[in-house]
Design goal:
Blueprint lengths: L6 E12 L2 E13 L4 E5 L6 H8 L7 E10 L2 E2 L5 H7 L4 E4 L13 H12 L5 H14 L16 H12 L6 E5 L7 H18 L2 E6 L2 H4 L5 E6 L2 E7 H6 L4 H7 L49 E5 L2 E4 L9
Parallel strand pairs: 3-8, 3-9, 6-7, 7-8
Antiparallel strand pairs: 1-2, 1-4, 4-5, 9-10, 10-12, 11-12
Length: 325
């Protein structure tokens, strides 16, 4: 695409200070999100997905430190924003739906007050009646009757609370929504409803989405591209169909084979052998080498580079280093 991406992440690294040790939870990650695009960020628990999400909106506090890289939003580096610029950027340009979002609602404050607080904070010039009308409109957009605006979170089901959080995220018409495991703790029927609604809203309002999950099957229905992380590193990024049906990195192949196929013959699921990498003692070479059935001697001593194996498809593996660009 010749158009400038909405969000361009370049060499982003985040470390946690644990005593005298610095643990690198996100290691030189680079990818972009285009306008109107949905990008999935996949990987097992602890691979750095949520850490990356917090870094994109500069939400980290010590002991987490963003140590290098850029997060360019329409060409401007978010990491260099002052407090006022960050305040404008958050919610108005980019909103975040946090993990276990339905539990983020304050149980002793009504849904109305939680929604109107966000609108008033960024639009103090709006009259009370206008703010209330906007809150009612938002509930209606996510499929909740406006009459329920004065109720409290405990009066909503899990799916309704998730929809209410999505309504708050949409309050200021952001251009990018970061969703971190948005359907955690929901049953598969409600999960599907939430994903279908997200797709409809994206079509209606044209915002971009970064969908973070360990569930590749969930991503398959809504994303345009999927980026896969392992132990803080980006190991593969490609169009969704390529990741699901033609994965190239051995770790991505393991992830795909860990989920049952909806069609065709029943096959025994094969997990990924070994244990996740300890960031206290990272290896010199490829982080996935110890768990990889295709490893070579080179893998144990040299960390592979992220290379393009064909247009739009990149992977971080020595198997593709020769002849790749």
């Amino acid at each position: 695409m010749g158009e400038e991406p909405l969000l361009d992440i370049r060499g982003l690294s985040v470390e946690y200070l644990v005593g005298d040790t610095r643990l690198r939870a996100v290691d030189k990650v680079s990818f972009s999100i285009n306008k109107g695009e949905t990008v999935g960020l996949a990987g097992e628990s602890g691979c750095g997905k949520s850490t990356l999400a917090f870094a994109l909106a500069k939400l980290h506090k010590p002991p987490a430190l963003i140590v290098e890289g850029e997060v360019l939003y329409e060409g401007k580096d978010v990491l260099s924003f002052d407090d006022e610029e960050l305040r404008r950027f958050r919610w108005k340009e980019t909103s975040v739906v946090f993990q276990s979002a339905m539990n983020c609602l304050n149980p002793v404050i009504s849904i109305k007050d939680q929604m109107t607080d966000v609108i008033r904070a960024h639009h103090p010039e709006m009259k009370s009646a206008e703010v209330l009308d906007r809150a009612r409109e938002l509930l209606q957009i996510v499929g909740i009757h406006p009459d329920r605006l004065n109720q409290y979170p405990h009066q909503f089901s899990g799916g309704m609370r998730q929809r209410a959080v999505l309504a708050i995220a949409l309050a200021l018409k952001p251009r990018l929504i970061i969703m971190d495991e948005p359907t955690t703790a929901l049953d598969v029927v409600v999960e599907r409803e939430i994903m279908d609604q997200l797709a409809e809203l994206k079509e209606q309002f044209g915002f971009s989405v970064l969908l973070i999950s360990h569930d590749l099957s969930l991503m398959g229905e809504i994303t345009d591209r999927i980026a896969v992380m392992y132990a803080g590193k980006l190991v593969e990024i490609a169009p969704t169909e390529d990741v699901l049906f033609k994965p190239q990195h051995p770790y991505t192949q393991g992830l795909v084979n860990s989920f049952p196929h909806l069609f065709g013959e029943k096959k025994e699921l094969t997990g990924i052998p070994g244990n996740p990498l300890s960031l206290y003692s990272p290896p010199k070479g490829c982080y996935f080498a110890e768990r990889c059935g295709q490893r070579m001697s080179l893998c144990e001593s040299v960390d592979p580079k992220l290379v393009t194996i064909h247009p739009g498809h990149k992977t971080k593996c020595h198997l593709f280093a020769q002849g790749a660009s």
